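hiii so my PI (J.) wants the whole complex modelled not just the main chain, which honestly fair. so below is everything: two entries, each one labled with what it is. i double checked the lines twice but i was tired so who knows lol
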Amino acid sequence: MADTAVAHGADHGAHHTSTGLSNNKLGMWIFLGSECLLFGGLISTYMLYKGRVGEGPQPDQIYDIPFTSVSSFVLLMSSLTMVLAVSAAHRNDDRNTNLWLTVTAILGATFVGGQVYEFTAFYREGLGFTTSLFGSSFYTLTGFHGVHVTVGIIMLMALVGMVRRNRIPGSKAETVEMIGLYWHFVDIVWIVIFTLVYLIPA
Amino acid sequence: MAIIERPSTEVAVPGTPTVVKPSEALGVFKRPAATSSWKDWLVTVDHKKLGIMYGVAAFFFFIVGGLEAVLIRLQLMGPEGKVLSADQYNQMFTMHATTMVFLFVMPMAAAFANYFVPLQIGARDVAFPRINAFGFWCFLFGGIFLNTSWFLGGAADGGWFMYAPNSSTLFSPTHGIDFWVLGLQITGIASLTGSINLIVTILNMRAPGMKLMRMPIFTWMVLVVQFLLLFAIPVITVALFLLSFQRSFDATFFDVAAGADPLLWQHLFWIFGHPEVYILILPSFGIVSEIIPVFSKKPLFGYPIVALSGAAIGFVGWGVWAHHMFASGLGPVSVAVFSLATMAIAVPTGVKIVNWVMTMWGGKLTFATPMLFAIGLVVQFTIGGLSGVTHSVAPSDTQQTDTYYIVAHFHYVLFGGAIFGLFAGFYYWWPKMFRKQLNETLGKWNFWLMVVGMNMTFGPMHILGLQGQPRRMQVWTEARAGEGFFNLGFWNMIASLGSLILSLGILFFIINVVYTHKSKKVAIAPLDPWDARSLEWMTANPPVEHNFDSIPTIDHLDEFFHRKYEQDPNTHEIKQVASAEEVLADMNAHPDEHIHMPSRSYWPILVALALPIICYGLIYNRMLMAVGAAFLLLTMFGWAMEPATAPDDDFDPPASGEDGGHTKELAPLG
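here's the output for the full assembly
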C-alpha cells in the first residue's frame, strides 16, 4: 500500500498539467530565470567598478588563479555528483542518493571553504569591503554567489536527513531533481563569474 | 506537487459526503482546522480569501497614501505654505509615491489576479497556495514595516526613485531610507513569489481546452505582468542591496569621492522602474478589456491583437528605461535609441485603445458604473499617453524633466488610467465576490466626482510644469508666481481644490460599500448581473471553496457567453438558449468526486513574520537580527517538513482510484 501510494504520488506531478511539466519543476525554472537577472545586476556592477581601485590593490595583484581554478574544479565536479544523486533517486535507490547528495554537499562546502580562505587572504593583502569600489563590488558579487552555494548545501543536507527518515513530502525523485536544478544553476553562474572576474584581465 | 495538501476539514462534495481526517504523522504542528472564525484568515491558503485580504490591505494603504497627497496639495494651495516643514514635505512626497506604487496599485492588481485568474482559467486554486499566502503576508508586513518609520525618527525622504548618492547617510542621516530599502525588499519577496506562483498557475493549471488564445484578456495581462515582475524585481533587489550595504556597512558603491558612478543607481532603478509602470497599468488594461465587451454586447474587437500587443508592451518595456535619464547626459546615441524605442512603445498601446473604441463602435452600450470607469480609463489614459509621447522627444523632455508636467503625465496614466481601471474592477466584480451589487447612484456620484477631481487636480499641472514649476517644490512665493493666465497661484489653487473633490469621490466609494452591506434594502445580486462572457461568472456567488463542482471543458473564447447564446445558422441571429442559472446547474449536475483542496497552514505567516524581525534587527540591534534569522530557518524547515501530498489513506472512506476510476484526481491541483 505504501509503495503504491508513493508510485501514485511520484507520477502524479507529471500528469494533468497543461504544459506537461510539474508545477514544482516549472516553478523552479521560472525562479532560476529571475535569478539570472539578480546575478546580471551584480555582475554589471562589478564590471563597471573592477578598474576603480583607489588606493587599494589591483585585481591582478591579489587574484590567485591556480588556487581559484582548483576550487572552481571542485565546484564543477559537484555538478557531476549531483547528477549521480538524481539518477539514483530516479532508480529509487536511497543509499546511493544519500551517498551522492552527501558528496555533493562536501564538494560544495570545500568550495565555500576555499572562498572563505580567499577572502581572508585578500583582506590581509589590503582589500577590505570598504577599501575601494573594486573591493565592495568584488565581495558583494562573490559573496552573493557564496551565499547561494551555502543555501544549496543546507538544502542538500536537509534532503539527506529527510530521505533517510523517509519524510519527503511528495515525490522523492522530483525533489532531488529540483534541488539539482538549483545546484547546477549556481555552478553555471560560477563559470560566468570565474571567467569574467578572474580570467579576463581588468 | 506542493499543492496537494491534506484537507483538514470536511470537504463538502456533492453526492458523496467525504469526511477527511487529518493525520499529524508528518507535520510539526497540527494542521489548523478553523473554518469560520477570524483565525481562519491567518492560516488560509484559499486564493479567494487571499485576494480579498490583498484588496482590504491595499485599500487601507490607498487611504494612507491619499491623505499624504492631500497634505502635499494643502501645502501648495497658497503662497508660503505652512502645513508641512521642508523635511516633512520631503517625507510626504516620498512616502506618497512609494505607498501608491508598491502598497496600493501593485497589491490591488494582485488582489484581482489572485481572486480571478484561477476562476478565469477554470482552476480550483493557484499552483502554490502556501506560497501565495506567504506572498500576501510579506506584502502586509513589508508595508507595515515601511510605515512604522513615521514613528521611529521619520520616513524616507529621497523621492520614490531614491537617487544615490543623494540617499546616502551623508544627506539623509535618519533611518527613514533604511526602512524604505528593507521594506521594499520584503514587498519584493511578495512580488517575486507571487509572480512565480501566478505564472505556473496560468501556464499549468488551465482547464481542458483552455488554450492560451482562449484565455480572457485579464488573465493574459496578468501573465505579462508576472513576467515583468519576475525579471524586474531582481534588478531593484540588487540596487536596494547595494544601497543598504552602503548605508549599513560603509560600502562605496555610490561614494563619488571614491570614484563611483552616480548613473549606476539610475540605470538599475529604471531598468526595474520602467517595466514597473507597465506592471502598474497592464492589469487595469486587462480589467477594462473584460468590461468594455460586456457593456457593449459585443466580443472584444481583435482579441489576438489585444493579447499580443500586451505582450509586445511587455517586451519593448525593457528597452526604454533610459528615457527617464535624458537629462543626465547619456550621449546622443543612447538618447536617440531610447527616444525611438519610447515612441515605438506607444504603438501597441495605441492599438489597444483603438481596439477598445472599435469594441464600443456599433455596440449596444449600457453605461453602468463599471463601464463609466472603463471609459474614464480609455480617455484619461490617452491624454496621459500623449503627454508621454512628448517626453519621448528628447529635446522637449529635457525642458520637462523634473517639472510638474511630468507629475501631470504620470498621474494621468496612473490615476486616470490604472486606478480608474481598478475602480472599474471593484464595481464589475463586486457582486461576484460579495454577493451584492454596489449602488449605481452612489457609483455615479463616485465616478463623476473622481473624474472632475482628477482632471482639476492634474490637468492644471500641465500648465504649471510648462511654466517651469519644479517637481518636489516645497513652497512658492507670490512674487514669482507670474500673472494672467499663467499665474501659478491660480492653478495651484485649482489643483488643490481638485484634490479635495477627488477625495470626496473616493469617500463616496466607501459610503457605497458601507451602504450596500449595511442596508437591508439591498437585495442579493443575481448570478450574472451584467450578462458577462468569461468563466469566472460560471460559478456561484460567491464561488464555493473549490470554485467549480466539475471542471468545465472549454470550447470557445468567451466560453460562458457561448453556453448562454447560440447563433442561428440561417438567420445569423444570436439567441439566448440558457440562463446563467441553467448553465451553472448543468455544469454542477455531474460534480467531480473526491476533490482535493489544499489545507490551511501556519507556516506562511510565520515565515513572513521572521522578515521584519530581521530588518528591525539590521537597523537597531544585530542580536535581534540573529534571532530573526534563526526563526526564519526554523520556520522554513517546518514548512518543508509539512507534507504536500495528502496520502490516500488520509481519507475516510479511502479513495478507491484503482477500481473503476471512482476517484477523480483533479488537473488543477496536480
